[in-house]
Specification:
The protein is an all-alpha fold. It contains nine helices and no strands. The longest helix is centred in the C-terminal third of the chain and has 33 residues.
Length: 264
């Protein structure tokens, strides 16, 4: 009995020290330059995808140039003609623009994947080697899927939470963990499967998701308070808050790797 208790206490102590170690690295800013790099690269990917979606939307049958001109004329009657002329030139070259947007988006996504592998290599202090085909095809797509899922999913579920009674909000918190856990786990596993035990990767995934939910809750409360005080401040501050949110999310994404490394 005493031996089992000593083993349990030792495991708890080891995890507590690993958690404190990772939080210290996040709070003191040791991961700041890594998370800043990820934020910058993600914004490059995000902006290139927005441009791509803009070109793809021009192929929609209900989005005719005449309807677009009518809408611009209602919103900006004074500048409608000049804006429409520029949009027309883009519309005429939409095929070439779409191809270029796809290539640029793919370049940024691959660059994003390579940078993430390099950051993880620095954190675990071991060179992570991936097959080139795997790195150029699968990992970029999965990283993009992961980023969009976390970004859109967190925002959507937080929005839904505002309309639910308090007891269902707790249930939604558990649902978030269940939905996102496989996505986060496999992201870590693809890079760290040969370096860190699966159990520690699973613990790192749970650690990141708990941190993500806490961050979302605090930012949601802050944004609601800011908008209630002054909608203009809320609008102007939303971009800055989004960037701070992104950097914090990436800091804990990497901090969870430090936690798993410490356990390993």
């Amino acid at each position: 009995m005493d031996r089992r208790w000593n083993t349990t206490f030792a495991n708890f102590r080891k995890r507590a020290f690993a958690l404190i170690f990772s939080l210290k690295k996040i709070i003191t800013g040791n991961l700041g330059h890594y998370s800043s790099a990820m934020t910058y690269r993600f914004l490059m990917v995000f902006s290139s995808l927005i441009v791509l979606l803009g070109f793809l939307s021009s192929f929609l049958p209900f989005l005719s140039p005449d309807r677009v001109f009518e809408l611009i004329n209602q919103i900006l009657p004074k500048y409608a003609s000049s804006v429409f002329e520029k949009l027309q030139s883009v519309y005429k070259h939409r095929n070439l623009g779409t191809i270029l947007s796809v290539l640029i988006s793919y370049f940024f996504v691959v660059s994003y994947a390579k940078m993430f592998a390099k950051l993880l290599s620095d954190i675990v202090e071991t060179q992570i080697k991936l097959r080139e085909v795997f790195l150029w095809v699968f990992i970029p797509i999965y990283l993009l899927f992961f980023s969009i899922s976390i970004l859109v999913g967190s925002a959507f579920l937080s929005f839904i939470q505002t309309f639910l009674p308090e007891w269902l909000s707790v249930l939604l918190f558990i649902v978030k963990i269940v939905i996102f856990l496989p996505i986060v786990y496999f992201l870590y596993w693809f890079f760290l499967k040969d370096l860190i035990k699966p159990l520690y990767i699973l613990e790192a995934s749970v650690y990141f998701l708990l941190a993500l939910n806490i961050i979302n809750f605090l930012f949601y409360k802050f944004v609601v308070k800011l908008v209630s005080l002054n909608p203009l401040y809320g609008l102007l501050g939303s971009l800055l808050l989004f960037l701070i949110w992104l950097e914090l999310v990436f800091s804990f994404l990497l901090g969870a790797v430090l936690y798993a490394k410490r356990l390993n």
